[in-house]
Structure formats: C-alpha cells, structure tokens
Amino acid sequence: MTDEPHDGRSGIERDGFSYLPRFISLTESEQLIADFTSANPIWESRHRSDAHARDGASSRRITRPVYWLGGWQFACLGYYAEPHYREGRCLRAEPFSLVIDKILERLRPLLETHDPHVAEAGPPNTCLINYYGSEIGKGPPVDQARLRMHRDGEPGPVVMFSIGQPGLLEFLEPDSTAPELAVWTRHRSVVVFSGPVFKDRLYHRLVRVRHGEEPQLSSPVPDFRLRRISTSFRYVPEELISEFHELPLKSRAHVRGYVEQLATGSAHFAQQLKTQKPSRPE
Ligand SMILES: O=C(O)CCC(=O)C(=O)O
After folding, report:
1. Looking at residue 203, what DSSP letter applies?
2. Which of 69, 85, 128, 152 has the fewest Cβ atoms within 10 Å of its own Cβ atom?
3. Angle, alpha carbons 257-163-24 (nearest 5°)
4. 67 in a domain, yes or no?
5. pLDDT digits (tens, 9 = 90+) for 9-45
6. How many domains does the chain have?
7. How far is the CA of 176 from the centre of ligand 1 (A)?
8. Domain residues for 239?
C-alpha cells in the first residue's frame, strides 16, 4: 500500500506492472501529438436502462472525449470482456500510424515477458485515445480530467502511453480508497500491466491531471482546454472486429449516429457506412 504516489520520474518494475519514463522519444511524441490533435474525438454516451434511469432507458455521457484506432468499442454497446462479452462489440477503426507500430515493436520483448501469448498473437491491436481537460463555456471551466475506476476485460497485457501533463494513475481494490500502486504518469512514459494482480484483481482509475504549460496541446474538441492525452492499447481477436455492415441490426442502429459523425472527418468511417452486406449467392 502506498501513502505518497510515485512521482513518475524513475522506472517501476513489479510482477505484472512496468512503468517506463521517457520510453517515447521527443520526435515520436511530437508525431503522436500531431496525429492525436488532428483526430475528431467524440463524447460518447452509455445507454442506461437500469433502475436509476428515470424514463426507462436514458444515457450518461462518458467522462472525456475519445477516439479509437484499430477497433472502436462504443460505450453504448458495452466493452469487450472475456469470457462473456465478445461478439458485436468492436467496429473496425482506422489503422495504427507508423510511429505507434514502431513504439509497440520496441515494447515487444517486454510484452512477451508480461504474457508469452504475445509472441503468437502479436501486440495489442486496438487503441483507445483519451482526451483529458476542462470544458470551457460561459461560466468557470469545468475540469473533466479523470476516468472512473474500471478493469479492462480484453485478453493479454494493456499498454498505455502518456502525453502532456502528468496524470495520477491508481490501482486499487474496488471497495478500497487506499491504492496498492499510485504513480504520476509523465509525458512520454509508457505503462504495461497484465496478469492476476494488476489486470484481474485490481481496478484502475485516473484520478486527476496536473496543470502546466508544456507541451502545448491544441484541442481538437470545441470548447475544451486539453492538457493530457493517454492511449490504452488492448487486444481483441481479429475475427471479432466487425465491419459496420456485419454488426447486428440493433447495434448498427445504436452506433449509426456516431459513425456518421466520425465519417465527416474520416474516409475510413465514410466507407464503413457505404459498404453494404454482400448479397447471398443464389
Ligand atoms: O489515462 C490513463 O492513464 C488511464 C487510461 C485508462 O485507464 C484506460 O484507457 O482504460
């Protein structure tokens, strides 16, 4: 159990957890910033049809704008989680950039020590990009820079890149307030976690993000002051990443509005909407 969070200036190596400060080179970080700040992130909503929803089904916006590469897991479809939530959850998204492939390739030996299956399956093939900052409108800015406690249900190690201001990442039991590990994840650092403790037992959350000037991040989201971007790379079996026309009808209806929004800035998603189900041979 920790009292003070680790300051993130030096590396951490534990069974199932690695923190690598400055693993991403300056040049790579500049390329990642250019790519991530020219995407069109969206605020998704989770649909709720539980007892707390006043009129039957309602929706709750997730805490931050997001963009996905490789495969898009929409909050309203529920995220991929082994062993029960596998089918119809992941839509084919734009491919990783060369700089991402290069960094993942450099991480490969470490990923294989976290999980030998990486040698066959390859590194994680989907990437959630989180944009942390404050909403700015007429009143005082509203700080949205946090991510609630959760676990990632995809198989294999999870890899996270941090870009921008330091973010406080905590790993803890769901009913505890005392983290078993807390670290300020700094600009250009990488976290890898896996296995029975950090992936299966403990939950993780992003508690807050510091304020600061450098590196400057221009926000791709209107009325939003961006100060940190993180990515979480997760593995989804290739055969479970669907084209839009392959999703069940109901799922297509749930996500069509989002895909239309994405298609305004992305040839990939415009094509996803155009492609029809091939007709069955007579
Ligand atoms: O922003 C972070 O460092 C944490 C991100 C995270 O937990 C996730 O994307 O699942």
Report:
1. E
2. 85
3. 120
4. yes
5. 999 999 999 999 999 999 999 999 999 999 999 999 8
6. 1
7. 19
8. 28-154+213-273
